[in-house]
Amino acid sequence: MNAPTGWPEHLPNQLDIPDSTILAVLAGSARRYQDRTALRLGDAELSFARLYRRACGIGQLLADTGISRGDVVAIHLGNGLDYPLCYFGILLSGATAAPLSPMLTPVDIARQLADSGARAIITDAAGDPLSGEARDGVVRLVLIDEDPPSARRIAIGTPEAADPPPVRLTGADTAHLVFSGGTTGRPKAVVISHRNLLAETLQYACWRTGAVPETDDEGGIALRPVPGDFLLRPGEATALTAAPLFHSMGLVGLSQHVASGTTLVTMSRFEPGRFLDLVEAYQVQHLLGAPSMFHAILECPTLAGRDLGSVRAIGCASAPVPVPLTQRLEAVFSNARVRQSYGLTEATLVATAPPYTESAPDRFDSCGVPLPGTEVSVRDAAGTCVPDGTVGELWIRGPQVSAGYLNRPEETAATFVDGWLRTGDLGRRDGDGYLAIVGRIKDMLIYKGYNVYPGELEEIMLRHECVANAAVVGRPDEHAGEIPVGFVVLRTPCPPDDVLAFVNAQVAPVKRLRELHVVSALPLSGVGKVLKTELRAMLDRIPPAVTA
After folding, report:
1. Is the pTM above the cut of 0.70?
2. Residues 6+ apart with CB under 8 A from 380
């Protein structure tokens, strides 16, 4: 297959991924970038060199308490500098990290600790992490496989070490377990090996900054720039995100920024005005987030008059990005290009993205092309490849694709087939090799035998001048099968039937919205995905508001 249109001339379609672990990236960037700021949160910051020394210190502390290769250590912290230090410290000790959402209930925490087989948990809970007690800000290691469970509570403190514990890891060792699937059922632990994590880190870091990996004299890995009109460059950019670190977007993104020598500014929680303050204060070049976050930024009352000219690239992920949102973002951030990527936890993070170059063609409805070393196939329900332009399920193969779910053999067999990942997402490829996401198979509606894709309707709704955000789900109907139902958050007051008429005038009769409900906000996950399961539950409790 020929390279897709706009593929950067000096980037190979296959990267030479060293046979190593993500820890070689941490060490290589510490030596390459040294005193350059790696992480910044509020007034606190860490250089690349100190990030490595502090992580080595925590790794040694864990090893001294008996944590060893293959043990699982959970992390139950909010966003903060302690999180990356503890995460890399766990990996340096030879153990596997298991991030837990700080929003979990004690029951959910206990379940995920049991599912992951964790020996210990790093938490800032004031007492037993399963008790639901308030946090006191003191980060501790709690060994939970002893009797009583909280017998050993060890303050992490601020240890430093020049070198990590003497543990030999390979690419086959598990780097982390990330729980996925919480929007559709009981979360499953996705097994991400060091080989998966290293490949994904280098694939996307090189793609975004125009580089190839190289190994230094001590086995560390860093990036070497290649020629090209790339929007970002290794060792030069500052990025800003509020993505939660317990989620792949924040966690794997952390390793990618370390690899590219990017200064990462993060937030303990997202607040639109504060986000814009940080863009101005640090002259940020790269913004990262979900569509819902960028919707909120565009509605921020203090947006006007900001100095946003430093921004060169806007990375948007976790849900399809409507074309109207892309157009508004590029109008407000006038020096920036929006880059919509596509991926999922089972592929470590990202599988496709547009080229991060000035000369790449604008394809606002696309999530780009497969990353170097990645294959994407579009298939029908029988698993047969379909022609370009035809909607089908996306299958992914590449070194970043996980081997499966922890202790879930049946679900693993159904999702991971002969080296391919069945994503459950619908998409199509155009003649130039660019992919577009249509929606989830589970979200597709069947109205009187016709397929209706919510994303198409949502995009039209967002073009209405009064609509700030929108989502579409199906309501069961004994005659039609399912009817499309819209939910909107209004920017300015507007009769619902005006929005309904606006949408239905632009689609075929079988695709028309049959109901519309105005809500104050859409239910969102921790990374900004619309929780359509909750919207469907709302439909069980409310009667039709407007009928077409």
Report:
1. yes
2. 386, 392, 393
- Amino acid occupying residue 16: D
Side chain identity, residue 425: D
Beta bridge partners, 376, equal: 396
Nearest to 196 by CA among 171, 223, 168, 222: 171
Whole-angstrom CA distances from 148 to 103, 108, 234, 383 are 25, 20, 48, 51
The whole-number pLDDT of residue 344 equals 93
| Torsion angle defined by CA atoms of residues 356, 359, 360 and 364, in that order, rounded to the nearest 10 degrees | 100
What residues of the chain score a pLDDT lower than 70? 1, 126-129, 131-136, 145-151, 181-185, 544-548
Q: Which helix (H) or strand (E) holds 31?
A: helix 22-33
- How far apart (Å, rounded) are the C-alpha atoms in residues 294 and 306? 15
The pLDDT value given to residue 390: 96
Q: How far apart are CA 167 and CA 160, in angstroms?
A: 17
Q: How far apart are CA 147 and CA 150, in angstroms?
A: 8
Taking CA atoms, 147 is separated from 66, 142, 143, 151, 319, in Å, by 16, 12, 9, 7, 44
Contact status, residue 427 vs residue 227, Cβ threshold 8 Å: no
Q: How far is CA 542 from CA 273, 532, 535, 546, in A?
A: 34, 15, 11, 12
Q: What topology does CATH give the domain 444-539?
A: GMP Synthetase; Chain A, domain 3 (3.30.300)
Task: Please report, for the chain, the start and end positions of each structural domain, with discontinuous segments joined by +.
Answer: 22-193, 367-440, 444-539
Q: What pLDDT is stored for residue 113 in this prediction?
A: 93
For domain 22-193, give the CATH number.
3.40.50.980
pLDDT of residue 151: 53
CATH number assigned to the domain covering 367-440 = 2.30.38.10
pLDDT for the residue numbered 548: 46
Residue 183: predicted pLDDT:
47
Q: Which two tokens stand for residue 4?
A: 């897709």
Give me the pLDDT at residue 186, please: 76
Q: How many residues does the chain have?
A: 548
Q: Is the dihedral of CA 93, 99, 104, 109 positive or negative?
A: negative
The whole-number pLDDT of residue 133 equals 64
- In sequence order, what are the residues at sequence separation of 6 or more whose Cβ sits closer than 8 angstroms to the Cβ of residue 219? 20, 24, 27
- Three-state helix/strand/coil letters over 60-99: HHHHHCCCCCCCEEEEECCCCCHHHHHHHHHHHCCCEEEE
Are the beta carbons of 70 and 95 closer than 8 angstroms?
yes
